[in-house]
Amino acid sequence: MKPSTDITPISTPAVLEVLETYFEAFAQKDRGRRGELLGLCLVPDSSICGHSRVFTGYAAISEKIAGFHNNFPDCRLVLASGLFAFENIVRFGVAIVGPDGSVVARGETVMELARDGRFCRVVPLWDMSFPPLPDAWPQHLAVRIVKDADAA
What we know:
Layout: H1 12-27, H2 31-41, E1 42-49, E2 54-56, H3 58-71, E3 76-86, E4 89-97, E5 103-113, E6 119-126, H4 148-151
Parallel strand pairs: 1-6
Antiparallel strand pairs: 1-2, 3-4, 4-5, 5-6
C-alpha cells in the first residue's frame, strides 16, 4: 500500500467515531456483525500487523479478532489514552481488560487513516522488555548503561 500524498487534516471527533466502531468490531464475537463493523471503520485492503503475521482484508482481520477472543476469553480491547495525531497518523494507548475490569496487557497503537476517514493500517505495539544492546554496538550511538549499583 502506497502512502497517501494528499494529507487531509485530522478531525479528532471524526477519528474517535471511527475508532469507537473499531473497538466495537474487536468486541464482537458474531462473525457477520463483526464484518459489518469492520467495513465501517477499515478500508477493504486494510492491514493489522500482528507480532508474527500481517492480517490484510476483512476476512483475515476478522480471523485475528476471533483469535483474540480465543486467547483472551471474556476480555475487551479498550482505549487507554487520548489521541496524538499528525497528518494522517493517529497514536493512542490501548489495554486488554479482563471481565473483572483488571488490565491484562497495555500498549499503544499507531493507525494510518485513509482518505475517506477509515483506517488503512493498524500497528499495535504491546509493552514488553527489549533485549540489551548488541555488544558490538558503538557506544557513542547508545544511551549510557546504568547498572543497579550506579542507581543507588
